[in-house]
Structures are given as C-alpha cells and as structure tokens.
## 1
Amino acid sequence: MTTQPYLKAGRDFAFPDYKPRYPRQTSFKINHYRLELKVDIEDRRVDGYAEIRLTSNGSMAELDAVDFQILEVTGVKERDYDGKLLTLFFDGAGEKVVGIRYRAWPRTGVHFVEKEKGYGFPFVWSHGEPEYHRNWMPIYDYPNMKFTTELLVTVPQPLEVVSNGELLDRRNNADGTSTFHWQMDKPHPAYLISFVAGVFDKDEEMVDGVRLEYYVPKGLGKLVKNSFNKTADIIRFFSNYLNYPYPFKSYRQVCVPEFVVGGMENTTATTLTDLTLHDDHAHMDFSSDPLVAHEAAHQWFGDLVTCRDWSHIWLNESFATYLENLYLRHDKGNDEFLYELYNDLQSYLDEYKRRYSRPVVYRVYKYPEELFDRHAYPKGGLVLHTIKNIVGEESFRKALNLFLTRHQYSNADTEDLRKALEESSGMMLEKVFEQLVYSAGHPVVKVSYRWEPETNLFKISFKQVQAEDSPETYGLSLDVVIHSGGEKVERKISLEERETTLFLSMKNRPEHVCVDPELKVLRVLDIERPLEEALSMVEKCGSVVCRIEMIDSLAKHGGRRVVEVLERVISGDPFWGVSYRAAKALGEIKTEEAKAALLRVLQKVKHPKIRRGIVEARGSFEKDTEVMRMLAKVVEDTVESYYVRQAAAISLGRLKLDEAVPVLVKALDYPSHAHVIPSGAVQGLAETGLEKVYEHVSKRVEKSYPTPVRVSATVALAKFPEKHETYTLLERLSEDSNERVRHAVVAAARELMDPRLLPMLDKMAEKDLNERVRRGAREVSKKIRDHLEKGVEYKSLREELEKIREENRRLAERLYRVEGKV
C-alpha cells in the first residue's frame, strides 16, 4: 500500500506564494572540511581559508556563501560568485581539493558580544541552524550531506575557543593571539559546526568512558553544579533507554551571553544561554534539567542521525522533546511526566487555536525555520508518545535502536522511522502515520455517560468532533477507568467509527469515570461530567491528568462549593501541578469567596510553584486594595522565590491601582535570576495602563538594559496604543541588532493590530535576518490586513444598509403622501 501524505494540509500556515520544497540535489560530496579562521572582534570580521576535500560526480559544485569577499580559489578550472552562491568548475569528475581564501563581515551566523555584556570579556559564537553558516563560511549549507571537519580558530588572548570533536592543539602566537585546532572525526552536517570564543571557568567529569566538560563565563564556575549536575545521569539514561551508547568521545556544554535560543545541539559541543545558570535561591523552582536533557538527546536524534531535509525536522525536535520528558519520568516520577505531557498538549493547542495548523511533516514552506514550531516540538513529542503506546514501549525502544543503528552518522526521513517501527512491532502503521504525522489537526472526542438503574447498565458514548482541518475519523483506542462501589473497572475502547456507544453491565452506580487517565493519546476530550462527580472525586482520583481536567470543569461552574473544594486541593493535593491548576481556577472564578480562599492558602502553602499559581490568580481581582497589599508584600519579600515575586509583580499591575506603581518602580532594580523580577515589574507597570508609567517602560527598551528586560519592555509597549512614541519606538527596535528584541517587536505588533505598523512589518517580513522574525511579521501583517478588509466589508455593508434605509424612508414618505391624499 502506498501512503497518501497530506490528507489534511491544515489552515493558515502556507501563504499563497509558498511551494513544496524538496531535498537539494548535488553532484558532489564533501568528505572533509578544514577551516582556518581568524576572528577580528573590533571589526566584527572573519578571515578564512577553507580547504575542502570532495568527490565530484560531474564538473561543477555549488557552495553557499553570502556577502563574501572572495580573495582566492585554488583547485578549480574556474569559479563564479554572485554574492550568494560560489560555483566551482572542474575538469571532469573525481577527487578534488579546493582552497578558498575569503573575508566576511557576517550579519548573522557569527555573533559578537561586547565585553560590557560578556562579564568583562568579549564573546564570539556561531549559530548555524537551520542555514546561517553560509554567512561566514563557504559551505554546502543543507542537512543532507555529512562530513568530517577541522577548525583552526585564531582569537585574541586571553580568549579560548571551544568547538566540535577533540582539541588537537593550542598555540600562543607572537602577535598576542592564540590558535585552537579542533577536529571532528565523525561526519556531521554543516549546521552543527560550531565555535565559541570567550573566557571561561571550566569543570569536567567522566561517565562510562565519556568526558563531560562544562564551560561557563569566567567568574560563574560556582553555578555549574546547579545547572549541570544531572548531565551524567542524562547521558547514561539515554544510552540505556536507546540501547545505544553515547556516540562520541566527549560532550561539552558551553554557556554564552546573548545566545539567540535556549540551546543548540552542535555535535559534541552544545551552546547554551548563560540565563540557564542559576544560584541556590533560583534553584527553588527553576531547573536547567529540561534544557540539558533536550540538547543531550539531540546527540542521538539530530547529530548521530540527521533529518534528510527540513520537512522532517520532527525527527530531530520531537524526539528531543519526548526523550526530555522520558528522562523527567525517570528522574522525578510518573506524575511529573504526565503533567509535562499535559502542558505540551496545551502549548500545541495554543498555537493551533491562535495561529495555524499543519501536518507534522510538511513540505510547503518558504523558510526552514518556520517549521521549528509547536507542531514540531510538543505536538510531535505527543505523536511519538501515542505511537509508543500503540506499539508498546518495548517495541518502541527496539525500533529507536534499529533506526539509530541503521542510519548512524547519516540521514533519514520519516518513512525510515515508520519502517523501523513496523519491523520491531510487527504492526502496519501507515494509517497511524497518515493521520498523526502527514495530516494536520488532532482527535477531539466528546464523551457522555449515563447510569440506567433499571437495567444496571452504564451507557458511555464517544463522538469524534474534530474540526475540518483534521481527518474526519481517527482510528484510536482510549483507556476508560470506571470507579464503582470501591472497585475499578478498566476497559480499552476502540474508536474506529466517528460515533461509538457502549453498554457495560455494572453491579453498582459508577461514582467516577476517567477517560485516557495516562494521556496515552494525542487528543482533546470534551467530557459531559456531572458537577457532583467532579466535586466528590477531584480529591480522590489517582490520575493527575483526570484531576486537572476535573479542575478545568469545576472552574466553569464556579459557586461556593467549588471554591471550597479547590481550596482544599491547593493545600492538600499530593502533586504540586494539580494544586497550581486549582489556584489558577480560583482566579478564573473571581468571586469574593475565591479571593478569600486565595488569601488563606497563600498563608499556608510553602511550595514555590504553587505559590506562583496563587499570586498569578490574584491578578484577576481588579481594583482590590486588599489583594494589592498582599501582592506588594510578596514582591518585596526576598525570602520568596524570584519567580513568585515576578508573578506577583505582574499580578500587581493587573489590579490597575495607582498605589501599586511605587512598589513596581522599586522592583525594577531588584536583583534576580535572568532579571525576572525587573522584567515582571516592567510588565506589571504596563498592565496598569497608567500614562505616568510610560517613561519607566519605554526607556527600558534601550541597549543599556539586560536583554530580558528589553524584551519585556518592548512587548509592553503594546499596552500604550494611544502613545505616538510607541510606534516610533517599535519602528526603531524593528532594526535592532538583538534578534530577541525584534521577535518582541512582532509580539507587540500582534497585540496592537494597528495599520500604522504595516510598513514596518512588511519590511521585517522581507528583510529581517532571522527567518522566524520574517514569518511572524508576515503573519501579523496579514492579520491586520484581514481586519482592515473586514472593516471595509462592514463599512460597505453599513453604507449599503444606509442606502436601503434611505430608500425605505423615501418609500414610506411617498406612501404617506399618497395615503394623505386618499
């Protein structure tokens, strides 16, 4: 049977000019890439000499090279360069050695950080994913070619360089520079090549013969333990789970300032944001473990085996996301695992509802980085979780080992994964992949049930009601657990039809029903649950997922009894995530009883993550001075966690009280991990909506402030749509050198939805150096234009109605006159 991908292409992802993009075809293969690079920090320049050993099947090879000054090319018959592609011509096929001497002032791909933001030293680091290395090295910049590499990087002393593979040599030069010679002896794609230059504190350890190294900016060595103490256990867990030992000799993690993402899994040399480094106080409720696990998982999925083209990026990102969650299960237990799956589902659904839907594997795109979204990360991880539960965990693990072994140090696509899963499980999975991977959307199941005492039958009905962007009917199975008379009845319900109804013979009236309590399936459930059941069972049910879903149901009902139950859940549930959700539910209810309950539990609950939920919920009580006093106390209390104080600052602003402003202004200078309290204070000030706080917000977009504060302030400008300065600032910030700030400009524009921003957004959509910024800007500009068109349509309709009314008035007048004559 031949698969039929893209049964449902989704909605709103592809713009009209988008076309299917297929893997690049080449007539050559790079075997080894050796690069000598000298970094000029003051001039933000690189001078390079690339020696490329390749095999040509024809007489030509094309390398990506953007805005280079090509000084010399050797080993070719002739060459041609158009500013983007360097075309090499040979005398026939065969083994070639090409030398390219060049100079470049990279606008992206290599990032220079001034010493003021680099702890007293400058930093330089590269970032290649998906296709940014073409801005500083002549390279085949696409994932479907892998080769060994050498980097010899020269930097000013006292900087040192960290790169892929092993350090072969370090040489101090007479001109005050040092040269570091790194070699990667296993093939990897261009985007995983990396170098970082800076001044570091370093630590290392061994795990099962693998050397683990940790590089952090000089002076921050004391923070290594909090961030990286689980690394050895993570490497060992993945090696055991996959039955495939860590595939390289060493693994190093390098923290740098101003990194553009959380982490990047460069082969053997992951680059991480320095914001993941944290002190003991932050360690109360902040952890680097998810980031560390995610990037480490990529050493198998992404580095050892690399997606053949970007449409299959889920093979990198979904696996890293899911393996990160599996490590969480190993490290902290099943409740934490299920809660993370639940949060992943909500994250994906947020993108699905607010922005677009697309298949997990999709070829119709313009920029590769558009595909690095919540469909590729959390949704893809949930798809893998669903497949694991279909084939069984033992078969799933065997399939992953087969997939890795078969395609090690090479490329693979989604069909390679499907075949490995089928071989290991003995199951046919084409339908599963067509529905979950090659189609957009997800199952939505409406569940209702009724007890019939006359016959002792329990009727339970399932109806698939997913939207038109999803397959009409999914073939899936849901676990159902029915609690009745102290007994637990478990059934697996197969849903092959759009509607399914079952009658179960029961001795006693069911007290409680859990559907898919272990969240084994990517799904949305709409359960018609009786209020009394939720009230009585939310404190008793053993499933974290089911308890959270009951809390969501209770929040919609409200009422005194619901508030009383939720208050007990906050204080007494054995898992913090359920308590957090219960606190948020009280914020949604917004009654005086809910407010009083939140004030009481804040006095009793000590867990910082639950306290965060409580103070977040209290922001719902606008203009309440009692709540304001309690939140102000939290903001000012240095014993509280940084993140609880940040949440309190934001909630304080949401109350929209003048009296909150002095507290928030003072909080702008509070020290905290990753500047979260000042960032929260900026957001809180903006939430007040008061004109007098505008200066505090607007001046913090300037480069003298830390990036997290600048980002928060840039987004916060959207709270001041009436200020002309807002639009002037956003236009200036749209050309800021900081990618995170430009992302924030797009976020502010999305909230403002103002036509005055269209020229700025159009320019960003066309020219921004970052592909995701381009995508976001185009998306927002389209939304604004859609609103304008609707406005025009409404205006046209109103004008037409006015014409009709006028005609009717005239007709009435004529009729009146006629009648008058009569």
## 2
Amino acid sequence: MKFGKTFESHLTIEWRQQYMRYGDLKELIKQGVENAPSPLTSSDYEVQAYYRAFEETFLTECQSELTGVNNFFLEKLLEARRKHGHLKLHLLAYSREPGHTGSDSSLSQRTERSPKKLMTTRQLRYAYAEFYLSLVLIQNYQSLNETGFRKICKKYDKNLRSEAAGKWFVENILDAPFTDGRLLQRMTIEVEDLYTAHLANGDRSLAMEKLRVPPLGQPTPPSMVFRAGIALGMLIMLLVATSISYWKRAPLEDHTPGLMSLFRGPFTWVIFNFYMAANVAGWQQAGVNHVLIFEIDPRSHLQPATFLEIACTFGILWALAMLGFLYNDLIGVSDPFVFPLGLILIMIGLLVVPLPIMNWPARWWTIKLVGRVITAPLHYVGFADFWMGDQLNSLVSCIVDHYYTVRFYAVSWLRYDRVNSCFEPDVMVPITMCLPAWFRFAQCLRRFRDSGSKSVSYLINAGKYSTTFLMVLFSTLRRNTEGNRCPQMDRLNPDQKPTNPETLKSSPAGEYANTFSNPYTWLFLASCVVATVYCYLWDVIRDFGLFRIMRGERLFLRKQLVYPQAFYYFVIVENLVLRLLWAVEFSILYHNLMTPHNMRTICSILEITRRFIWNYVRLENEHLFNCGNFRATRDIHLAALNPRQERMLESMMDESDGVSNRRKSNERIRLKKEYF
C-alpha cells in the first residue's frame, strides 16, 4: 500500500484538518515537475531560476505545515498534562494517600464535615481508559506527521534531483517540538503504573488489557468473516426452501393474518440487523467514527461481520420456525403455533442471557440503551439515546406485532376458535403505537430542561413527535366509527377487520356511508400531511444539515460532504417519497388492491429501509460536528477539585517536565496565549 493511503487510513478522522497536507504537497511536487521548463528550449539561467523559485515555494509550504502541526501538538500536550494532573489528584484522593485525602485544613469546619464527593472506582477506570486512548492518539499524530514530512522531503529530492528538502528536514523536523515524545512517553508510563497500582490491584496484565486499544486499521479477524459467510450461505438456502414451501403448502386462510403478525416482528428484527451491518460497514468505509459518536468502548465495539453473523443467526432461526409451522403435521406437531413461540423465546434468550457468545458486552450495551430510552425523562439524554429512540419509531409496526404475540400466547392460545379473532385491536394497540413517539417526546423535553430552557429547537423537535399522537388518535376514531364497513386500513391499524361477532355487535357500523363521509378520515389525512411536512423538513434541515447552500455546484447541500454528492440528492428525494408512503397505502387499501396484512408488511420493511439510509447522513452530520470541535475521544467528566487540590495542580503544572528540547531556547516554537 502506498504511503498516501496508509496516511489517510491511520489518521484520527476528527483531527484530519490538523495533519500535514501530504496529498497537497505531493500534488505540488507533481505540478512542479510537469511545469518545469525544458533545457532544450530554455536557457540554464531560466531553468535554475525556476527551480530556485519552486524550492522556495515548496519549503515555505512545508514550514507552514510544520507550524500548524507544532501548534496543535503543543495544545494537545498541554491539555493532556493538565488532565493527567487532575486525574492523578482524584486517584490519590480515592486511594486515601497521605496528603491527598481531598480535604483542606484551611477550610472551615463545616466544609471539613461535608467534603466533596470522591470519584468512584468505575468513574476513575472509565476516565483513565479514555485518557490513555487520547495519549495513544497524540502519539499516532506524532509518528504519522513525522513520517509524512520525511516521505514528502524524500519524494521532493528524488523528483527534482535536489538535496534541499533533506537538509530542511534535518534542520527543522528532527528538533521540532512535535517530534519530542519523551514527555508523552513519560505520561503514558505513569498512567499505566497508576492504573496498575490503584485500579487493578497490582495486576499489570489486567491493567494493560483494560487500557490498550486495538491497532489502528486492524482488519476483521478471518475467523469472524468465515463464520459470517457460513451463516449467510445457510440462511440463503433456508430462505429459498421457505419460499418454495410457502408457495406449495400455503397455510390455512384462517391462519394467514395470525401467521403474519407472529412472524413479521422477528423478521423485521432480522432485516434491521442486516441494515445495521451495512450501516457500520458504510461508516467505516467513509471514515465516520461511529464508535465515538455512540460513545462505545473502542476495545469491544462490533465489526460489520459480527452484525452480519447475528442477523444470519436470527434469520436461520426464523426460517426454521417458519418451516416447522408449514410442515407441523409431517413432523408430528399438532399445534403449529408452538414454533413462533419457540422462535421468540430463543431470540430473547440470545439477547439477554449473559453467555460469552454473540458479543455479550455489545448486547448488554444495547439492553441498557433501550432501558435509558424507556426511562427517558429521568436522566441525561445523549446521542445514542435519541438515536435508539428514532430507530424504535421506525419499528413501531414490529413493536405492535410483538404486543399481538404476547397477548395471543398469554390470553388466547389453546382457547381460540378462530385465529383471526385473536389479533383484533384493543385499547392497548393505539397506546403501543404511541410509545416510541412518547419516548422521543420525553427525551426532547429533558434536553430542553438540561439546556437551561434556552434551546427552543428541542421544543420544536418535541412538536414533531407529538404529531404521531394525533395520527394515532384520528386513525383509531376513524376505525371505531366505521367498524366493519371500512374497506381499508391505514398503516397504523391492525392487519384485518374485526371478525368476532361480539366485536361486530358492539361496533358502531353503518354510521357513515363511506370512508370519505367520515370526518375523522379527513382529520386523519390532515394529520398525516402535517406530520409528513414537519418530519421531512426536520430531517433534511436539522438532522442532515442540508439546504445550507442555495447556489453553485452544491445546490441544496452543505460545505462539507463525506459521501458522493449524488447520494445526498438521492436521500432528499428518497426520504420524501418514503414519508409519503401512507398516501400510497391509503389508496391501495381503499381500492382493495392488496390485503391489509401484506400491505403492512411492505410498509414496515420500507420504513426501516428509510431509517437505514437516514442513519448514514445523520451520523455523518454528527461526525462533522465532532471534527469541527476536534473531539476524538469520549468526554471525561471530572469532579471539581477543592482549593487545596487546585493549588497542588497548579504546582504540578509549574514544575519542570524533566524534558529539555534539543532546540536552543531562542529557537523554540511557543504557543500564543489563546492556547492556554
């Protein structure tokens, strides 16, 4: 691999603008060679004058790049020194070291009786793991830039048959502040020693296991790729067998709606996991740091192959359960509905049982994240929290299907006369439909509160999710007032019309001659239009950050783009088309062109497809925000120091770092006050 590609693949994405511009300098050398005057048509004086001028231009560019690299490195080094001192004081206070108990004898007795709360073991381990990662990133920044300068100077001398760049490298780079890694190395060793002594009970191997991160650019292990490939091959064969079996041995007509509700929910999760595998692969390919955005530990994050393996495993279980349902009489099982129950129980077990399979840390992270979404108003809301809330809003049909499944097996199983009557809506169906929107609504209110009631955008976002409540309300009223005369069901309604005689007797059927004479139909359609416009504008303007440029080549886009430009225009159109799917569904069901359960299945898959594409641009927009703030590690929230600890920290910062730069004092590059 050429160094240019290695350089791009190993740099810290969030600091991309702070690295030396290797590609631009390489292009400058290429242009210098191509534009050089020919000795056959130009005099020696003209040729020498050109090369002298180009040499001055090139070395000036190198010096400018060196100044930027030095300034950024010294800024990060100073930040690391202060953070290291802060963490060290907290750690020594936590360990009750003499002179570091966290109390201040000069304070009043009242303060001594109620000292500031110490950081917990978990908080300190998290803080030191992130701080160690930041030191590794700074070391990587050092080595990549030094190698880049050496390579570009060597390339210049080779292409222009000169020694000027090599001399400049020796005089400027070897003694540059950013190449002196002794202080950084000393901090790294001290962090390892402190973690080993105070947080790992003296076990250095355990400490290094917790601190070290995988090498940058590490490929997916071949064994993981092999397992995912085997699982994918098995799934494809089983899906073909299931399709043929469903065609040859279609279930009883009375069982079809129930079959759809019982199997559609797990199938949606399978598709969702396939989409997640594609999302992670796409983010990695485009350089979007999803690990940082979701604040996942980089030591245990999931690879695309792992998501693919999980999706294939669930897909295999789904296909086997479907085949068992279709061939239950041939295998001696009298009740085919034991197979969907077994499928649900096995999938739940694989998710929640803490066995060392299918990456338990990632599964536990997902469980905790869903729990935080459900309890949204009670705690701080981060990006991963509201991202998961948005995913649940696209999985609302899947959630309703799971409610039907729970109700069927808890109430109606083994006591039903007709399967259809077991999947009719009740009062819990509209409540279940509103739950994902409520979670996001509550998250927006919590973020508004945490912002000090200053950011009105959170209230506007909450208003977007409140439109779902109106859609569900008018849809439910429309269904109840039309009863069994309604020839169609919208996407928020259940799969089939009521068939239970008691339900038909109690429903106010016949109140309206047709669906368009029902006022709730018009209210439902109006709420859908408002929700579509509201959500679409929020997506493209706020979530995607588009429509920032209104003229020129990037019309309707923004200044910084990660993906190809055509992809953003596709997203703008695709998001609008799929958000208008409710109108297509309403028309198809009104004219009885498709059964409700088939239409609902198609709409459910298309909605998670829209969310799959949405994930690409939403995380890219968040990634660009991190790049703008040079945020490359998770935030470390440190407890405040007491006055005595503040004085100790200032003394530590004022002490000599024990490293003398090889450059003379009058040549040392210093930072301006703004960096301090």
## 3
Amino acid sequence: MNGIDITGKFKGIENGVRALVGPEDGLRIEVRTDPRQKINVLKTTVRGLEPEQDVDIEIFFFVEVDELTTVGPEGGIVKDLDGSILISIPQHALSSTTKIALTKVNGSGQIGSTYQLAPEGMNLNLPVTVTMKYHPGNLPPGTVEDDLFLIFGNQFPRKMEDLSVDKTAHAVSGTIMSFSKVLTSYYVKVGKKLKDIPKASDFRLPIGDNSDASYSCGQDYQIPSKNDLGETLTLLHRSSYPNFDYPKIFLNKNSTVNRWHVITAFNRNRYINSASGPTRDRNSLYRGHKDIFSNGEDWILVRHGNDHQGLPIHAIADGLVIYNDRMGNGYAIVLAHQIDNGPILSVYSHVDEKSPCAVGTIVHKGNVIGKIGRVEAGHTYLHFEIGRQSLIRMDGETGEIKVPATWFWEWTQDSVYENYYDPTNFISNIMGKYQWDFNVNGNNEGWIANNVRKYENGYMYKVKDGMLSLKPASSNLQVESYPLKVEAECFDSVFIRMRNDTLDGHGRVCFATDEEPHFFEDKAVEFEILNDGKFNDYRVFMADNHKWKGAIVGIRIDFPTTVNGKTGEIDFDTIRLGRGYLSRTPDTGQTKCFDNSQEITCPATDEPFYGQDAHYAIHPPSFEVKTINCHEVVIDHVSGLTWQRRDNGTKRTWKEAMDYCENLTLAGYSDWRLPTKKELQSIADYGCFGPAIDTAYFPSSHLPDDCFWSATTRAFLSLSARSMCLWNTQTKMSIKSDHNYVRAVRGRSLEFCHFKDNGDGTVMDITTGLMWDKRETMPMTWEKALACCENLDLAGYDDWRLPNIRELLSLVDDSRHEPSIGEPLIHTACFPGCRPSPYWSSTTHSLYPGFAWYVEFDDGQVHGGGHKGRRHHVRPVRGGG
C-alpha cells in the first residue's frame, strides 16, 4: 500500500467495518466496532516484496475493557460489576499468572449481553465454568428456561459443554477450554411437529451438478439432468492416501469437467492431519485449533477454482426446512428427514445467499435449495453434514420442533461422534449396503463403537490394513451400524470374521426393524466366540428369531464380557449380511473338453474354446453314503441336502408322490419332502449319459424309464408339474395324473433368485453368491460366447465366464406363476432386457459333442440340443466360490 491512506476504503458491515485493498481482495482488514464511530487512519509501508510473496503484519489495538483481573495457577473468579457473568477458574487451569479481560461487546446477545474474554484463543489446562444470568421476562415467545444454553466462539458459534440451567438463580452455566466471545442462546420453535417431517424413502448426494439450475423449493421430484450426477452413487469412490490415515472421497473420479472431491473429511482435523500433505491448507477453518473436528464433508468441484460459486445444492431426500439463516459468515439451510430409525438432519452451509426455501417448507429429493458459496476470500465449496436427532428438541407441551436460534458450527471430536453421521457412509448404508470390508484406511464404513478405550489420536477405532480395530473397555463392548435399509427376506444370517484374545464366552447380534426400530433383547441371537488370537468365521443365523422380518434398519454386535487382565485389540476383517444356508451350485461333473464336434485336450488360456465347463470346478460333487438306523441315505456335502438313496420302485401320481414323502419315516427322520426341480437337477451328472447320475451313490433299476417327480408346479398350468429323467437329465412338464418315480429329500430347501442390483451393470444373487452381467448381448455361436465372457471386464472384475448349465438354470424364476405372453421366466426388474429366448451354457452334451446345453427362458426348460453353430444369447457370470 506504500503509505496510501485507506480510510475511505472502509465499508460498513454488520457490527463493524471492513476494508478490501488490493487486487482480488489481496488484503482484508476488519474492525468489529460501531461503523459510525470515527476510524483512525491506518497507514503502512511494504517494500521489497516479490510477486505472491507473503508478509506478516502485526497490528496492535488499544481497547477499553470492563474488568481486568489477574489470576494465577491457584485459580480465581472473574466477574462483572452487576453480576451478570461469572467465570470460575479452577486450580491449575492456568499455567502462569495471567491478566484476564472481560468486556461487554457493543450491542446485545440473543438473550442478555455478549461478553468477550481475553486473551482470546488462550487454551486452558482444565475446564473453566462460565455462568450467565438471564431475566425470565426477556425470554422470546415460546421459549422456556430449559431451552437456554451458552455458546462461545468469535467467528463460528460452538455450544458449551456441561450445560445446566438454575431456574431459581436464573442462571445458565457451561464449561469452556479457551477464551473467546460468550453469550446466552436458546432453542426456537419452527411451527411443525415430528409427524410433519416427510418420510425419506430414497437418497442422493447434495452435489454432482455442474449446471446453472434454478431454485425449485417444494416442486415435485424430477429426473436429474445429464449434468447432475448426484443420484449415481456408483460414481462415489473412497480410497486412502498412501501411508496416511485420511480418506480420499471422489464423485465421478475420472471426469475432467464434472469431478467432485472432499477437501475436509468427517471427524478430521486438518491441523492434526496435515503432516503428510494431502490436507495441508493454510486457509483451513481449523488451522491452529487442535480440538475442533469437522462434523461433515467439504465438497469442491475439481479444477474449477472459485468459478463454481452459485452451483446448485440439492436436497438429499424429501424433508422439512427447519433452519434457514446465517452460520458463521455465510448462510445455512437445515432439513429434517424421517427414516425408520427416527428423524435425521441434513445441513448445508457455506451457502452463497439465503435460500428462498422458508422454514416449514416441504422439499423433495433433488430440489435445488441453495447455491454453493464463497465466504469472503476463502474457497468455494459446500459444507455438508448429516446430524442426529440430538441436535433438535421437542416442546414438552405442544410437541413442536425446536432448533437452535444460532446453528452450531464448531465441535470437539467426541461431540462429532455423538451428534453426527459420516455423510457419504450414511447415504451408502441407508441405500442398501450389506457388506463391510474396511479396506480404506481411516474409514469405519459406518460402524460405531461403544464402551471402548480411545487410541492415541482420540479415535474410538482404527481402520488400517483392511481391518476395523477396537480396544474394549472392561465389559459390554458394542459395535453398532449406521441406519440400514435391507430386506430380511434376502438375508437370514450375519457373517463376522474377527480376531480376538480379549473377549470371552459369547456374543450377541441385535437388530432393529422398521416396525420396531429400537434394539431390545427379544430381537437378538447369541453366538459363541473364541479368544485364541486367530481369525475365526462366525455365522449367526438371524432367521431363528421370529422378529427377523420386514426391513432391517440396524445391526448391533454385543460382547458382554472381557477376559480379565487382557488389554488387546479386537480386529474385524469383515461384517456382512447373507444367507446362512447359501444354495451353493454343485459342479456339473463334466471334466472333459470339447470343440464344435469332438472331445479335445482342454485348451490353455487365450486358446479357442477356453472357458468351458471343464475349466471351472468350483463346487465339485461331494456325496457320502451313510447308514442310519439300518437305512441308507446320501449326504450331499455341497448343497447340505440328505437324499433317500433308493426309491421303493413304485410309480405314483404327483399327488401320491407328495403324500408319500410327507408320510415317509426313514433313517429316524420324518421331515422328508418331494424335492424341487432345481434340487432334483443338483444330483444329475452332466459328465455322463445313460444314466446321467453317479450310480455308486444313487443306484437305479428303472433305466431308461427313470423319470422322477419334482414339487415344482405352476399356477397357470395347475394340472402339470416338473419332472426329470435321470437317463438324460431332461426336464419336462408332466400331467399330474401321470405316473413317475419318487426320490425323497430332507433339509432346508435350496433358495434361488434373491437378487440385488449393484448399480454398476451387475446383479448379485445373494442365495448362490453368483454375480451376473445384467446387460444383454447379441446372439452368437457357442465358441464366441466362451470368448466373449472370458474377455469381459466389467465393474472392476475380469474373471467372468460363461455359466455352466446348473448356474444358468438358477436364474429361472419358478415362482413366476403367470408370466405375460412373451415375458421371460426371470426377475425382469433386475434383468429388464432378458429375452424369452435360448441362452448358452458352457456345458457340452456328453453324448453329442456338437451340441451344448442351454436354457429356454420363455418356459424355463433345459435343453441339450443346442447345435454349437447356432446363435444364442449370453449371460456372463462370476463368483459362486
């Protein structure tokens, strides 16, 4: 400035003045005082600076204080003359003798006056108690004394700890760990009740839109534009910085024009986490504040600097506006959403301008409720939070929602943990996540630990090297999920892989449902645990509890006891929901390879005809003959089923077959039943023919007339049921009055077709563990079908293959009783493009090598007469092991 008089550059602002000097706000000077008072001329001279070189300027102000009290390490009291405020400083709170200034700030606080404590920002060794008086007659309408609390902080308000209200003395007390501005605040009614909060049935991200969208408060839901990626959660990417416990979070990572990045992650402190570089930022909100942690995420549009100021902020779900006012130096808008677990809040701050969405407005998912802002000379970004119900109150008489008159900004590490959810983890879990692998350092994936000892960095957990680690306290360790939304009918078990030398006895998996959204002992299943210091796999069969039904909205794993004297860690490798009795698909038994006409030596990788059935033996047949109570049965160790080894040689109608099995007592069991079509086909051997079954385990004297009934029938063909001939494994629809043989089975029914769309072009069958390509292909020959699947790279996987006939058959939905004409027998919601046409399997007909087995999806039939030169559709598969 070189001696220039800048007095004229000061402009009036709220509670003070500001001077902006130099290009692009190169220097900012603020004086928080009455702008009508005379301002002294400020002159300075700066010489010899290179372009972009920084300079430190110290400016000394002489201010008038109300009280100046000297307090030493022995402690003391600081108060004003009329007793409106009293600061009680305990012994050892101060390290040395300090002059403490108490000044009433011009203007008033929200209730009573605002006071400034100095030395500002001075950290204390122990909590200091602040007590402020109030006059009951000055309380705002609808506010009661229990609504009062104290806040402190200069730029960003922060709620004091250890709050209490003395209604007799008309005083509010709280504790602080540093000196700053203090005042009394309160909760205010918003004119709505909990029942007015709309149900949030679907969620999205608040960002992802680089268009110039207009406000749309309260408008009906609209499909996002091509510029809005906020609903495409599969583009959300989390990873770790190398050798650094700080998560990287991107949306649309590989884009150059619409890529978003989190610059401050949940429950992190940039001051603490800045040593290795990725979070070093001299403009950090938390610079120099080691006890302040982020209660949300800061989202920024990558490579666009500050030119994305004004981009739209979208409501993450249907919600009720409960706050729309200033927060810090910018604006914020807060929505309340109703989920099965209770209300949650979404908070959007660092907003460019006050939103036109008034308090009390119902908004819908995707509505534009604000514009991303740039507060003063800082970055342009959105600060996004997911808050818990603890941030608001309910009026004891009217039930109305009450919110803080000044929304809170700064939080300690423990307070963040207690009052907020990690935003992207919350959205991932509430949108159907069911498996947690902990493969991103620092990311607990939405699991909360209770009754644990903290790590050195103050965290309740540690996530590193693919494990979630906890240090249990003396007893009753609890590990609780974020709110979930998964269907109980798709999952009957919780699988836990963990290592432990600290816990003893048993554990317990508790659950909450949409009908009963709280954890109680009547919704829990126990399991035994080992404390051998090794990784062990635990399967907890939740379906044993009759309340495991509807939507599961929360899981909590309890460990009641700790081994005496042990202080080790508990390491979780994975937690997942699944089916305790997966319908594992037995291998077909085919061990030979074929080309288009004959048997060949099995090809190597990249050679023609690689990828056929014989190349993959994922669940080889494993039968065992057992004699129980003088009766022979066959145990299938792959499917878990127990079979009648020999039928009694009598042909029966379908009704007679059902009655025979229901009344059968064999090997001491009376729970025999007629097998389903897929169960019956699971014992067929596609590696042989005439008969196509291993007669060492299933002897038969009926060949070739050996067709057996299944229990599978169809309502729209109620006079017919499926049967299978073991001579050639051919299935057919037989009239129920026909006569066929019967082979009974017992054990849990094999289940299929419980699909989950992964949102990335793949579909998982939770019952079989198979992942399918949901897309459609052009018809092709058998040889090209093999190559197509082997060369496929989809959703980050390159181990795709052409399914064998048993895997392909598992897709047929036998429960579709009345399909429309031309509609395939498959779950069309997950496979919307499936044709009612033949689809290739990798299994060759063992008697006729020029033919391969296929499934006709118009009727669900299995056929062995598919000439390999014909063109059929293809459905790639992976997994199942």
